[in-house]
Amino acid sequence: MKRVAVIGGGHGQSIVLRGLKKVHGIKLTAIVTVADDGGSTGRLRREFNIPAMGDIRGVMNALAEEENLLTDLMEYRFEDDDGQHGEMDGHNLGNIILTALTKETGSFMEAVTKISKVLRVKGDIVPSTTEVISLYAVMEDGTIVRGESNIPRYRNKITRVYYDHDVKATDTAVKAITEADYIIFGIGSLYTSILPNLIIRDIAKAVRESVGKKIYICNSMTQAGETEGYSMEDHVKAIEDVIGTGIDKVVFANDEIPEELLERYRAAYSEPVRIRKRYHPYEIEKLPLLDFKDRQIHHDAAKIRDYFEKEVNET
User: Fold this and answer.
1) Which residue intervals of 193-231 are DSSP H helices?
2) pLDDT tens track for 68-115
3) SS (H, E, C) 242-281
4) Contact by Cβ (8 Å): 61, 74
5) Residue pair 222/271 in contact by the 8 Å Cβ criterion
6) CB neighbours of 92 closer than 8 A, spacing ≥ 6?
7) Which pLDDT tens digit goes with each residue over 12-30?
8) Reduced to 3 states, what is the DSSP secondary structure of residue 88?
9) Rounded to whole angstroms, how far apart are CA atoms 193 and 196?
10) Lowest-pLDDT choice from 107-116, 178-187, 247-256, 276-285
11) Closest CA to 124 of 215, 208, 56
12) What is the reported pTM?
């Protein structure tokens, strides 16, 4: 069994995991950020002083053996039809279940383990830390922005992200990275999904010292407020600067994107990520990896599965 550690958070990590869970002969560990502080997740973590669970919940559903009524219920969001905005308005049922189990067991890790068993998750889900943390960003003009949900709103170039104290990584996450044959970064928000894991000192150290092959699945589009104007090389450099070592391989989507979609994304200050240099110290594999359903540009989980099956078989 090849050991695979996938580091990230958000919708992008869930897409990767939906593909990888169908690859035979690998043992998956998802290492997930708990820095989210917006929406239902933010409200619950502030009220109960527990780590953010929103990205964890999404990963659980992505790795569930079958996506069915139970996974649908985990994603159910309460909305007030009368517009009164009651206490439950905007809360996610899965977040509430995770909160209840954390309070009952006294352990966020145990709550994640218990729900993972119910969902028959294929692989292990590990928060990068179990501390309640707040992400900070230093902007190019020197402004400091606090809070993962606030950072993209500032619309300035991010110099770096950090925590206001030395965050302790979970031992399980460090062990999974240390023992991994493959370490995968992405897909997802560079500064608010991927780097929040890697700026934890012990996580970066484990990645740096691991002999596993380090693969970055590059975002296909830049993200407003985070990576506007970023090339592929800029994304890779941001990761390498934090982990203190080089990436071995970049997987890059080379699909031709319909002009209608490009115009729609440009209106939201998002452009295709481009390769700007001719020579690189890492391998680049260009593949058609995208899906354009519902007028969105997303990576396709099945295409990621096909790529990684080939990667594992060739190794």
Assistant:
1) 195-198, 201-209
2) 777 888 888 887 666 556 677 777 888 899 999 999 999 999 999 999
3) HHCCCCCEEEEECCCCCHHHHHHHHCCCCCECCCCCCCCC
4) yes
5) yes
6) 39, 40, 41, 54, 57, 75, 76, 77, 78
7) 999 999 999 999 999 999 9
8) coil
9) 6
10) 107-116
11) 56
12) 0.93
Domain extents in the chain: 2-314
* C-alpha to C-alpha distances, 306 to 12, 30, 142, 176, 182, nearest whole angstrom: 17, 19, 44, 23, 16
Give the Cα-Cα-Cα angle 97, 200, 93 (nearest 5 degrees).
10
Q: Sign of the C-alpha dihedral, residues 312, 304, 211, 175?
A: negative
CA distances 41 to 88, 92, 130, 219, 221, Å, are: 12, 8, 15, 25, 26
Fold entry, domain 2-314: Rossmann fold (3.40.50)
Residue with tokens 């053996």: 65
Structure tokens at 185: 């970064």
- How many Cα atoms sit within 13 Å of 132 on the Cβ side? 12
Cα(120)–Cα(79) distance, rounded to whole angstroms?
28
Longest dimension (CA), the chain: 58
Which stretch of DSSP H or E encloses residue 7?
strand 2-8
The full DSSP string for 127-191 is ES--S----EEEETTS-EEESTTTGGGG-S-EEEEE-SS-PPPPHHHHHHHHH-SEEEE-SS-II
